[in-house]
Write a structure and sequence with these properties.
Blueprint (H helix, E strand, L loop, with lengths): L5 E9 L2 E7 L16 E9 L13 H14 L3 H31 L6 H13 L1
Helix pairs in contact: 1-2
């Protein structure tokens, strides 16, 4: 079985012409060849990918890059690690926020809400306390 972070490099050649292909195989996938492909040779090599296999290039204004470098240095981390942590935090918050908004919309749809007037009365009670 090929793990989640494993990749497959396939070398396919016909009559001396060599082409290299890169791809992913998931569990259950397999390499096959048909009769009309008999002249091709197929070699597969399992190559583990690093834990993160997506590279992204981000352009930063010089002052933002300098601030990022300072923050990373103060934290004793690489700038790329700080950026990764910030993005993960942002994505987590965004997912949480969308779930909470959906809960509120579901409550409204089911008739569970507090009227504007009731909210005003509650605020006045709190402020008088």
């Amino acid at each position: 079985m090929i793990g989640r972070n494993a990749g497959v490099l396939a070398s396919v050649g016909a009559a001396g012409d060599q082409t290299t292909l890169a791809g992913h195989l998931s569990a259950g996938d397999r390499a096959t060849r048909t009769e009309d492909q008999a002249s091709c040779k197929l070699g597969l090599e399992i190559v583990p990918f690093p834990p993160y296999n997506i590279t992204m290039e981000v352009s930063l204004a010089p002052e933002v890059e300098a601030r990022l470098a300072r923050i990373a240095s103060e934290a004793g981390k690489a700038a790329s690690q700080v950026v990764e942590e910030l993005i993960a935090s942002y994505v987590d918050h965004d997912e949480w926020f969308k779930r909470e908004v959906q809960k509120g919309l579901d409550s409204l749809d089911s008739g569970k809400f507090v009227s504007h007037e009731e909210v005003g009365r509650q605020i006045e009670r709190i402020l008088k306390s």
